[in-house]
Amino acid sequence: MNYQLLIESYSLGSSLSEQEIELLNLELETQIMNINISTDFGCFKLAPSHICEGLNLKKDTYWIMCLAQLLDLHKPTQFGKTKSVEVFDLLLEKGLVIG
Predict the structure, then answer these.
(1) Which residues pair with 62 in a beta bridge?
(2) How far apart are CA 84 and CA 99, in angstroms?
(3) Interval 61-77: pLDDT, tens
(4) C-alpha distances in angstroms, 63 versus 58, 79, 95?
(5) C-alpha distances out from residue 52 to 7, 10, 13, 74, Å
(6) pTM, two decimal places
(7) In this structure, how many other beta carbons lie within 10 angstroms of the beta carbon of residue 15?
(8) In this structure, are residues 59 and 49 in contact, taking their beta carbons and an 8 Å threshold?
(9) Rounded CA gap, 24 and 92, in Å?
(10) 42 with 52: CB under 8 angstroms?
């Protein structure tokens, strides 16, 4: 299933199964690995405002940040950086966001 559809479904009030959360986690790991190859993937497009709002993110947030935020909500990190911080740092390093 498309990760964007899962995020949209969640932002509209649906819950996610453990299997869906694991699939989203795998998707994020894949996107992070591919960030060095290209930033032309769909995950670097801006998510619709209703999805950003549903995840308590600012308008015009990248899909990859929405994905990281969703995972932080469902699989909080015990130690180290959250997924959102890890992704933000990568985007900052690539010049895709301003710190």
Answers:
(1) 46
(2) 14
(3) 999 999 999 999 998 88
(4) 12, 24, 16
(5) 10, 11, 13, 16
(6) 0.90
(7) 8
(8) yes
(9) 22
(10) no
